[in-house]
Design goal:
12 strands, 2 helices, three-stranded antiparallel beta sheet, 6% helix, mainly beta
């Protein structure tokens, strides 16, 4: 699973957590209980996004062992712990691990950064009519779009390439 979903807001962990002999203060972590998916081994540091697609945390951990040290099937893990980004930003008291040193080296002190919408193509999954339109969504402002079909032998010699955000294709 590449993306896991929790339809509820994460909850703050109100007690200190001890992991690998390190103590994380109450309120420094967020817990997510996934409605869809799980976390995979090696996903540590992956982002926790809010409803505006802004990073509010980084995956802190989900164990693949139970409290007795026995292996657990990762498909059964339905929750994850995330470090709060605002705490990690200033290092949580440890200057050596401040995220701001890596993510804001110019010290701009920007409070948010919007994500860039990912371009995507909309249209039918088959070309069965004379003219089938496909449209490229979320094109960055000022960008020129050039497109080509592939494999070319499936299309008439005219209409295999073009420019603009809409392609009208026929088989």
């Amino acid at each position: 699973m590449k993306i896991s979903i929790d339809n509820n807001a994460p909850t703050g962990v109100g007690i200190p957590i001890i992991v690998d002999e390190l103590i994380y203060p109450a309120g420094s972590l967020l817990r997510v209980n996934y409605d869809i998916g799980t976390v995979e081994q090696g996903s540590s540091g992956s982002p926790l996004l809010d409803q505006n697609r802004r990073t509010i945390g980084q995956l802190f951990g989900a164990t693949n062992r139970d409290v007795f040290g026995n292996p657990v099937d990762r498909c059964l893990i339905t929750d994850g712990l995330y470090g709060r980004l605002d705490v990690s930003w200033n290092g949580g008291g440890t200057a050596a691990t401040r995220l701001r040193d890596w993510l804001d080296p110019m010290d701009t002190d920007d409070q948010t950064t919007n994500t860039v919408p990912v371009p995507s193509v909309t249209g039918p999954d088959r070309i069965c009519t004379a003219n089938t339109n496909f449209t490229l969504q979320n094109v960055p402002a000022g960008q020129t779009v050039t497109w080509a079909v592939s494999p070319t032998y499936l299309f008439p010699s005219t209409g295999r390439t073009g420019t603009g955000t809409t392609a009208s294709l026929r088989a």
